[in-house]
## 1
Amino acid sequence: MGIAVIAGYLIPAGPTHNNEVALQSWLICISITLFSAFILYGSSRYLNKNNDQKMLRKEAIAIAGIAWFVCGLHAALPHLLCNTDLSFAQSIFEAISGLTTTGSTVTVDLQEIPISLLFWRSLTQWLGGLGIVMIFLLLQSKDGTSGKMMFGAESSLPISDLNFSNFSKAQRSLWILYIGLTLICALGYYAFGMNLFQSINHALTTTATGGFGTENDSFSSFGTGAKIWAILFMLICSISLFLYLLLIKRRRLGDLRENEETRWFLILLITAISVTLINNFLNSESDSSLNIIFNIVSIATSTGYASGNYDQWPILSKEILLILMVIGGCSGSTAGGLKVSRVLLWARFSKSELTRTFRPQMESIPKMVNSSKSVDKNILGQLFVILTSAFFFLILGSLAMRILEPELSLTGCMASVITTLSNNGPAFAEFGPTNNFAHLSTPSTLMLCLFMILGRLGFVYALVLFSRKLWKHY
C-alpha cells in the first residue's frame, strides 16, 4: 500500500486523471493492515511455540486457501476508503478481481478515482499473477516439502514439475524473471507512445495477464505499436514461466518447440484467429484485423484488455471467444481458464475410455502432457473434480444470477459466471467490453467474488476449505 502512495506522488498521470493521492485514507488502510498482520503473526507464534512438527499437507492447503480470503479483505480497504462511490461488497469485488487477475471491474469512471488507487489496482494484479502464497514463500524463504505443497495448492503447475533441487532458489529465479519481463514490457509501452504512468500500470497488468487499465476504453485509444507489444507480452506470459527458467538453464530452444502444451496452445490460437478473421470478413465486420487479433489473444490469455467492441462480432466469432475464455492459457503461467494441459488430458482420457468400451481387456492409460509418464489415478481424479465443479458452478451460478438479477438476459447471466470462473474479465451482453459489473446487487457481487477465487485456485483447493475433515483436530 505504501508503494501505491509513493507512486501517486512520484508518477505523473496526465491531465485527464484525478491526481489526488488521498493520503489520510491510505494511512488508515496501512494502519489496519499492519495491526491485522501483528495480531496474526503474534497468534501464530503463540500457538506454535511448542510445536516443532513439519507442516502437514492439509495445513499447507488451508493456508493457501485462507490467504486469498484474508488478503482480499485487506486489499479492499483502499477501494472502500479512497473511492467513495464503491460499497463494501463492490470494494471486495474490485480487490478480489485484482488479486485473482480476473480484471472485471465495478469502477464506472477510471479518470475520477485517485491515481494512487489506479496504481493499487494494477499492483494487486501484478502480485496476484504469481500468487499470494508465492509472496509469502519468498519473504519467508520457505523451502522443502512444505513450501512446494503450499505452492502446489495455489499454482496450476504440478509439484512434480518443479525439477529444482533448491525450491527457494527456484522461486527467486521465478520472481527475477517476472520482474524482468515487467520492466521490458514497461519500456516497450513507453517507447510506443504511452506516458510513464500508463506504461508502468499496463506493464504490471499485462505480465499478470490481468487486464486492469488506466483508461475507460481499455486499449482502444492506444496506437498500433502499443497493441502489437501487448499481444507479444500477453502471449509470452500465458506460457509456463517455469519453461522459460528451463530454457535459460539448459540454453536449448528446442525445449520450447518440444513442449506439447505450448504447441497446442499456439495451434489453437492461430486456428481461432484465422477462422475469426475469415468469418468477420464474410459478415462485413468493420473491425480492423489488428483489433480482431488483439481481442482474441487477450481473451485466450485471460488478460481481458479490449480494443473496440467484440460483442458486436458475428455469432460464430463470439462462440470462438467463449471457447478460448474457458480453455485459457498454459499451466504454470499467469493466465486463467481451465488450462490447455487439463483439456488435453481430458481429451486423452476420453479417447482411452471410448476405446475400452469395445476393447474392455485393453489396458490403455493416457500419458501426461509434456511427459512420457503415464497419468497417475490421483491426477485423473482431481481432473474429474475440476471439470465437474466448473460445470456445476456454471449451471448453479447462472441460475442464481437469473434469480438475483431478473433484468439480465440469460446470455449475460451465463457470461458473468463464465468470465469470473475463468478469471478473464469482460464477457458478453450486459458484461461486454464496453460495460462493467457496477449495476449488480450485493448478493450477486459477493457470489462472483467467490467464483473468482474458485477459478484462481482451480476449484479443488478452494472447495476443500469447506470440508469438515480438513479442520479435524483443530
Note: The chain has a mean pLDDT of 84.
## 2
Amino acid sequence: MKGYVILISVVAALGGLLFGFDTAVISGTINFIQPYFGLSEAGLGWTVSSLLLGCIAGVFLAGKAGDHYGRKKVLMLAALLFFISAIGSAAAHELFYFLVARVLGGVAVGVASILSPMYIAELAPAKYRGSLVSLNQLAIVIGILVAFFSNYLLVDSGPNNWRWMLLVMAAPAVLLFFSLFLVPESPRWLVARERNDEALAVLIKTAGKEVAKAELAEIEDTLKIHEESEFSDLLAPKVRPLLFMGMILAVFSQITGINTIMYYAPKIFASVGNSNGSALLQTLAIGFTNVIFTLVAMAIIDRFGRKWMLILGSGGMMTMLLGLSVLFFMHQTSGIMVLVFILGYIACFSASLGAAVWVVIAELFPNRLRSKGMSVAIISLWIACTIVSITFPIMLERLSGGITFLIFAVICLANLLYVWRYVPETKGKTLEELEHQFSK
C-alpha cells in the first residue's frame, strides 16, 4: 500500500517539478532576454511576471474543471500546456509570442499548483499526508534546481543559450503526461460523482481493506450534500474564516520575498559585481539548499507539526533578511556574506513555509469545497507573487537593496505573529476529522 501511494504521489508531484522548473528557468534567461527584446527594468518585471498572470487563469480553470472532469484529466491538460509553452517560448523571435507562450506555461503552473497537492492530499493516508503533500514541494524545489543547473550548463552554448534553457522543460512535460495513465482518480472526487465502487477500490489499494470501508463512509457523510458547490458557499459563516486563513497564509508565503530570490538571484549577484557564469553558479547553490531543507521539512512535518514550523521558519527568514539589509546599507556586498544570508534565508523558507503552507491549504477546506477554496487561496498567492515580481526590480533600483530587504524582513515578522495567534495545528487527522473540527 505504501509503495502504491508513493507511486501516485511521485507521479502527481511531477506537476510540481514542472511548476518549479517553469517558474525558475526564467532567472537564467533574464540577462539575455532583456537586451534581446530591449526591455527596461519595468518591462523586465512585466515579462518575468507574464507567467504569473497565466497562473491566475490556470487556478480558475483548475478549480472548476478539476471538479467537473477530475483531478487526473486536468493534470494531463496541464502537461500538454507545459510542452506547448516550452516549444513556443524557445522559438519566439518577437516579444508578443514569447509572452503568449509564457502565459500558457503559467496556466499550466496554476493548474499544477492547486491540483498536484490536492490530488496527493485526497489519496494519502492521514498518518503520512504531511510528508506526501510535501513531496510535491520537494518536486517543486527539484524542478527549481534542475532549472538552475540546466541554465548553468547552457550559459556558454552561444547566442541562443536562453532558447535552449527554455526548451528543456518539454522533456518532463512528456513524462508527466504519460505517467498519469498509471494512477487512479481521487476517491473523494469519485464519491462526489457517485462512483462509490471505484472509490472503494482505490481506498483499498491506498489504505487497506481494514479501514477502506470506514473511510468511504466518512467521505460519503461529508459529501452527502450532492448539489454542485459554488464559490459563494465559501462565504458561509463556518467556512469564511478558513477561506481567509488560506488566503492570508498564501499571500504571506510570497510577500516574504521568496520569489524575488528565485527569479532574480542571478540579477542580484550580477548587481554586486559577479559575471553571468559566476552568478548562475551561485544560483545553483540556492537550488541545492532549497532541496536539502525541503527534505528536512518532509522529515519533521508529521512529527513536529505545521504551526511551529511556520513560526520558527518565519523568525529565521526575518533574521537572514535583516542581515542582508545591513550588508546593503553598509555597502559590504562584494564578499561571501551576501550568498551566506541568501542561502540561510532559503534554508529557513524551505524547511517551513515552503512545505507547510501548501499542506495547510490542502487540509483546511471541506471535501465538497476543497478545490474552490484552494483555488481562491492560490489565486491570492499568484496575485501576490505577480505584484512582488513586477515591483522587485524597480524597488531594487529606486529604494536600494537595504530598504527592499528590510521591508521583506518586517513582513516575515508579521507572518510569524499571525501564525502564532490564529493558525491551528492540523497534523495527524484525516481530512474528514479536520472538516468536523473546523465546522464546530
Note: The chain has one domain: 2-183+225-438.
